[in-house]
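## retry 2 of 3
previous attempt timed out at serialization; input unchanged, resubmitting
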Amino acid sequence: MAVSLDRRNGFLEFLYWIWNELDRTIFTAIKFSFPARFVSPFGFLGMLTFIMFITLGVTGALLMFYYEPIMTRSWDSVAFINNEVPFGFHIRNLHYHGSNAMVMLAILHMYYQYFSGRYKIRNEILWVTGVILGTVTILEAFTGYDIIFSERAELAISIAASLTNSIPIAGPMIRDLAFGAGFHDFVLRFYAQHVFILPIVMLGLMAVHFPRFLVFDVPMVMAICGAMCLAGGVFPVDLGFKFEPTVPPGITVPEWYLTGLYAFLRTQYDKFLTGVLWPALFIGVLLLTPFLDRYKKFSWKDRPWMTALGITGISQILVTTYWGFYIPPDTTIPLVERLVIDPINLYLVMILLVPLSFGFTLAFQVFLNIAAFNAFLSGMNNVNLWITGVILITFAGFFHLYRYAMAQSKNIPKPPKLPTTKSLETAQQPPVMDQTKPSEKKSPQGQVSESVTPEIKANTAELDLDKDPNTGMSDLNKP
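## retry succeeded, writing output
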């Protein structure tokens, strides 16, 4: 008895019905494409950033069940989630590393579009909204780790408040609006910005930024989710120290995506110039990139000036990020001198660190192996995330192999056609030679010779070999 693989059970019919009904809504205004073959990972960076946004929404909603946006209870509630709530450690690690992954993927996605020249294909609006969306993503991550109200958060809040206050005319008003009147106000205001205001702004920008076709690839989604779990297993996030107003805070640095700005501030130049105007200039150049690029070609090799400008931006990010993390370990030096950065050395190293970035990659791999071993010895909580990440990445690999094998199975060559009886008889007959000379083939005078077209008959014996015996005439009428 033949079994059809195309038949659908009741559950599949229900899912297809839902999808067909959603086709009339705004949800499917973006066409989700499932590629049948492997595509370059750089082509999935935008989709992976969106997946991280969804992951952060789910994990953040779970954390909201126990978090308390009160100055005296915020750090304690996070400690309760981390140590007492079932799976709280895992959810918080996934949320933390997911936020870092989203910022990193957004930056990689932007520079891939930059060097490939994709913004030149009438995508100026997509590029501009993408740059704004990346900036809002960093603000979203910034407000997220500040509401823990640890010593690290207090440093970031103090710097942000002073930078906002340095803006001429509108600075104090923006500071009061965003931070409130003091510590008792800012936790609740940052919480509202983190869980409601900024996500709404991001969704609005996504509605404009997304192209019509969004490529969705299951192996890449599994791989990025597995990498997020591996990061949570190798680098479990700690709570830090609770901020106490009566206790002097220790030396700390902001998150990696803000240490570049922190390095500029440590040069002790004007706060508005180094902390507001310089980053605004960098963002402004990115916004104007599609209108400044007058090259006709797309490849980075054919756009030397734009490529040099992009490499300069990457080198500045690398140098300032590294320098923002670095603090001299010598405790005999006064604290102020340890935090101050010589601007001459900063900009000199900004140029020299470009060729050293290749050595940084090798050193990071060695550090990753050492960190994985130390994390394994520290406890079993992070091992669960490690195992989950390995399972997801393994599944992504097997899914890719399955898809590749299915694609290759469709390329199997057809067997050669067997000779029929009629073709064999025709091949055995000797050819008949026409004895009439070309000069003797003349039409009678006054008559027009008619060309006789030989009738071509289809070889039904050969066609029957390719016919499917299970296909009837009623099946041919089906769409």
